[in-house]
Amino acid sequence: MQNVLIVGGGKGGTSLLKLLLQSDSFKVIGMIDYNEWAEGVLLAQKERIPTGREWSSFLTEVVDIVIDTTGDESVFQKIRAKKHNHTVLIPGTVAFIIASLLEDKEELIDTLQQESYKQELIFNATHDGMIAIDEKGIVTLLNESAEHMTNLKAKDVVGKHIHETMPSSELIETLHTRRVDKDQKFTLDNGRNIITSRVPLVDEKGHLYGAFSIFKDVTDVAHLAEELTNVKELQTMLQAIIQSSEEAISVVDEKGHGILINKAYTKMTGLKEEDVIGLPATADISEGESMHMKVLKTRRPVRRVRMKVGPHKRDVFVNVAPIIVDGILKGSVGVIHDVSEITELTNALKRARQIIRTLEAKYAFEDIIGSSEAFMLSIQQAKLAAKTPATVLLRGESGTGKELFAHAIHNESDRKYNKFVRVNCAAIPESLLESELFGYEEGAFSGAKRGGKRGLFEEAHNGSIFLDEIGELSANTQAKLLRVLQDSEIIRVGSTVPKPIDVRVIAATNVNLERGITEGKIREDLYYRLSQIPIQIPPLRDRKKDIKELCDHLIRKINADYGRNVEGITGRTLAYLQSYDWPGNVRELENVLGRAIIYMEMNEQLIDVEHIPTLERKKKVAPNDEKKVATDKSLAVLLEEHEKKILAQALAENKGSRTKTAKQLGISIRSFYYKLEKYQL
């Protein structure tokens, strides 16, 4: 009996240990592995075989055979250098081959030990060719697939030596070498190319009792590989498309049993794969008829059928279409749409359209251009005001950007997601202004709409209302506005019932309200209500350092409007623009730049001085040249006479155009008409 030391407790070492334990010719004296929990180590300990983590102490003179199954070349060389001369060292590759042969042998023995009729049934059912010979080379098996590929009949081959009917067969060599040959290319005697595997048949005691060959036609292998690859690629692609779709999808086979659903379907219906797959198409329906079954019956698609699905009875629309391949019905596919989601989207669209129809705030503080100290102070005041519900009064000359400030204050406030209503108090006739602001009841006056009408304050409920040119309100309208500011309620024209409202008021004016109070045109109590947070916006002449920044911004805007590509202004142009006082402020600057760009050549990219229209400058009158004014009349009379002369002169300069005259003088058209009537001009 020979003493054996096994180094390596992995798969190979474990297999060899099992084999040696069954032999009376060998005795395992040790199992070595760095891993004390290796499978081979545990088995050796169970069999009471010494184990260890270091092989050198086990390598004594009594060891006849050392089997290295580690696969580590350095370990193999160390053992080889230290072993005794009489000790045989078997490398891991041999051990691995032995383990593989043992596995193949066990499988083949199990197969060959089956009953003969079962063997014949199995062998003939496979598409692979099979040939078996005994230890003398006599053919014992030739299945139907082998008959087809070799053009031979089993009755003519079985019982004869294999070389009599297949001279080129290498099964005899397999008998002699006992070597396993896997997936080898081979050409049959009839010229057909095959892929074959040959295995020697060895029993548990190592007795050779034959050899076995299994082979496949190369053409079949190529076609099968190509088809398998295509099918896998197509299946992977379809799975990815269906699973990534946000549409809920379900698929059934030709019998109406579920075969596929995606994540969106589970999310919508609450049903998982185990609730649908393999079950009838009616399994997911709470109310209604199965459209899958209807489509399978009629072979015609259905669209927008309403039903309820899942345990929560989700209200849905379904579209279902048949799956027909080469004229054969394979199943049907359904796409499900959530009715509540469609309704929600429809309502959202309606709300979006309503927002678009109502002129919402378009500008933020980022859109207000300027960095001069006075202007930045106004912006800081506006930002602070935006965080409070207090009424804001924007004061400044026409064209300074009061409306931009109003937009920005609303968009910076907590009301930014609600309405922003703009009202030009001077643009609406006095007779209509009150009803427009506060609404009216049915029958309040002739021509009133049936059911009445909501006013602009009601439209702005929970939002903001911007009252431009607030100084032009009549006394009656001022009183009603004061009620809104004091009591947060309005009374429609023709009604006596107050309606509560929640509106943030932003007012603006370019006139002197304090003078209006002294003249009795502005209510003092309204003035103090409006002036909770007064913000003075400086004119452009007081922040000329902002002109360069304003020009760059306005040129980009004009380029977009006119389809031009002007890059900026020259240094000469900037100096020229900064030398002007800009009575029309930023609005006048935009007008000047727009006219300059219109008259520029298409290839010109910088605005120069010659492009700028002539800017009319007010002549300065020396103190000694001023005419003496008569002082025998009261100041009010003198002011009225001077105002009348100015109005008449301006009207003549504008050739009787009242709109141009009012714009030139910087007053509202309604105020201008009032003064014309007052002075009978």
For this structure, the quaternary state is single chain
* Number of discrete helical segments: 27
Rg computed from alpha carbons, rounded to a whole number of angstroms = 50 Å
Mean pLDDT score: 84
Quickly give the structural class: alpha/beta
Domain PAS: 115-176, 234-278
Pfam families: AAA_lid_14, HTH_8, PAS, Sigma54_activat
Protein name: PAS domain S-box-containing protein
InterPro entries: AAA+_ATPase, AAA_lid_NorR, Homeodomain-like_sf, HTH_Fis, NAD(P)-bd_dom_sf, P-loop_NTPase, PAS, PAS-like_dom_sf
What does this structure look like?
It holds the Pfam family HTH_8. Residues 368-598 form the Sigma-54 factor interaction domain. InterPro entries: AAA+_ATPase (IPR003593), AAA_lid_NorR (IPR058031), Homeodomain-like_sf (IPR009057), HTH_Fis (IPR002197), NAD(P)-bd_dom_sf (IPR036291), P-loop_NTPase (IPR027417), PAS (IPR000014), PAS-like_dom_sf (IPR035965). This is PAS domain S-box-containing protein. The strands form six sheets. Strands 12-11-16-15-14-13 form a six-stranded antiparallel sheet. The protein has a five-stranded parallel sheet with strand order 3-2-1-4-5, sandwiched between helices. A five-stranded antiparallel sheet has the order 7-6-10-9-8, with helices on both faces. By secondary structure, the protein is of the alpha/beta class. 42% of the residues lie in helices and 20% in strands. Helix 1 (11-21) packs parallel to helix 2 (39-46). Mean pLDDT is 84; it is low at 353-359 and 620-627.
Summarize the structure.
With 681 residues, the protein is of the alpha/beta class. The protein has 27 helices and 25 strands. The longest helix is centred in the middle third of the chain and has 27 residues, at 218-244.
